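Appendix C: a fully annotated inverse folding record. The material below is reproduced so that readers can follow the format used throughout the book. The structure is listed first as C-alpha cells, followed by the designed sequence.
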C-alpha cells in the first residue's frame, strides 16, 4: 500500500514538472517570435481611424492600406529595374578542398514602385521604415546562383534597412553571410591566380518582369582586406551580365561580379622551396665525406630524402582531391634525385 502511495506521489511530481517545462518552453518560443506585425491593409477601419491624421504612421498607412505586395510594380507594363550594389565587410580565404569561399556583405537593392510615392504634405524626401514592415512590400526575388549556404543576421535586431523615397524608390539593405562555390584551377599552384564569381539571379520573374543591373560607379566596394594566402584588390574587380535561359520558362535576369585573387608566392618560397633547396645543398655534403665512412654518408642521404618527401606530402595534403597535374609536385620531384645522391 505504501509503495502505491509513493508511486502515485512520484507520478504527480513528474506531471507537474512536465507541465512547468512546457509552459517555460512556450514562453521562450513566444518571446523569440516577438510581437506580430500587421500590414496596414490587414487593419480594420477602426484601427486606422485611431492613428493621428498628421502623423508619419498615418502617411504610411495611406500608402499601404490598398497596397498588394503580391503584385509587382508596373504590372503588365515595363519590367522593374533593380539596381544592385554590395559592400564587402569580410572576405574569407578560399578553401581548396571544398572549392568555395565565404563573404559577409551588405546587399543593397533599389527599385521604383509608383504605388509608394510620398504625398505632397510629407515634408521629408525619404521615409525610414521599420524592418518589420519588410514583409508588407513587394520585393525582387533575388538569390545567389552559385550559393552553397547563406544566413541573415539578427543580432541585436534584424539587420535590415528600409527607405521609401519621394518618387517611389525603395531602398533595402541587409547583412548576409554567404558561402559561394568557386571552381579552382590549380594547374599553376602555388603561382596561380583564381577568379571567383558571385552571381545574383532572379528566381521567379523573367526578364519581361524584372531586370537586375549594377549601380553606376563602383557597385561592389570593400575596404582593405587581408587574406592569409591571396591578394585581392578593388581595381581587379570585374562586372558582367549572366542572364540565363531555361527551357520552358524563359530568360531570367542575372548579374555577376568576378574577384581576381593572386596567390602569395612568398609563403611557399620561404616555407617550402627555400627549405627544400637547403636540404639539397645539405645532401651534397656527402661528396666531401670519405667514401669508406658509410656510417656518416647513409644517415645524411636518408635524412635529406626523408625531409624532401615530407615537404612534398605536406603540400599534397593541402590539395587533396585534385586529380590533375600541378606545378608543385613536379618541382619537388625535381629536387628529390639531387637530395638522394
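Designed amino acids, in order:
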Amino acid at each position: 500500500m505504501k509503495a502505491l502511495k509513493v508511486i502515485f506521489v512520484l507520478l504527480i511530481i513528474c506531471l507537474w514538472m512536465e507541465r512547468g517545462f512546457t509552459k517555460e518552453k512556450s514562453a521562450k518560443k513566444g518571446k523569440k517570435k516577438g510581437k506580430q506585425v500587421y500590414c496596414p491593409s490587414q487593419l480594420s477601419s477602426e484601427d486606422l481611424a485611431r492613428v493621428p491624421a498628421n502623423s508619419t504612421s498615418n502617411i504610411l498607412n495611406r500608402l499601404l492600406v490598398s497596397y498588394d505586395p503580391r503584385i509587382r510594380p508596373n504590372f503588365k507594363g515595363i519590367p522593374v529595374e533593380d539596381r544592385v550594389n554590395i559592400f564587402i565587410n569580410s572576405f574569407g580565404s578560399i578553401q581548396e578542398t571544398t572549392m568555395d569561399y565565404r563573404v559577409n556583405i551588405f546587399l543593397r537593392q533599389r527599385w521604383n514602385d509608383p504605388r509608394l510615392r510620398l504625398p505632397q504634405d510629407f515634408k521629408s524626401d525619404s521615409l525610414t521604415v521599420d524592418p518589420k514592415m519588410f514583409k508588407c512590400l513587394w520585393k525582387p526575388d533575388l538569390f545567389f546562383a552559385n550559393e552553397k549556404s547563406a544566413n541573415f543576421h539578427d543580432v541585436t535586431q534584424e539587420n535590415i534597412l528600409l527607405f521609401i523615397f519621394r518618387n517611389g524608390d525603395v531602398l533595402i539593405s541587409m547583412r548576409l553571410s554567404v558561402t559561394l562555390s568557386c571552381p579552382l584551377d590549380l594547374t599553376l599552384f602555388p603561382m596561380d591566380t583564381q577568379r571567383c564569381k558571385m552571381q545574383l539571379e532572379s528566381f521567379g520573374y523573367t526578364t519581361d518582369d524584372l531586370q537586375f543591373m549594377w549601380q553606376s560607379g563602383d557597385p561592389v566596394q570593400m575596404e582593405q582586406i587581408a587574406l592569409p594566402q591571396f591578394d585581392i584588390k578593388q581595381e581587379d574587380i570585374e562586372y558582367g551580365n549572366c542572364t540565363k535561359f531555361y527551357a520552358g520558362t524563359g530568360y531570367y535576369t542575372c548579374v555577376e561580379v568576378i574577384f581576381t585573387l593572386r596567390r602569395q608566392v612568398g609563403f611557399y618560397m620561404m616555407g617550402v622551396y627555400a627549405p627544400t633547396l637547403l636540404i639539397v645543398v645539405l645532401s651534397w655534403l656527402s661528396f666531401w665525406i670519405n667514401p669508406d665512412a658509410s656510417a656518416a654518408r647513409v644517415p645524411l642521404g636518408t635524412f635529406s630524402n626523408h625531409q624532401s618527401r615530407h615537404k612534398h606530402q605536406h603540400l599534397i595534403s593541402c590539395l587533396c582531391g585534385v586529380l590533375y597535374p600541378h606545378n608543385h609536385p613536379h618541382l619537388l620531384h625535381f629536387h628529390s634525385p639531387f637530395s638522394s645522391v
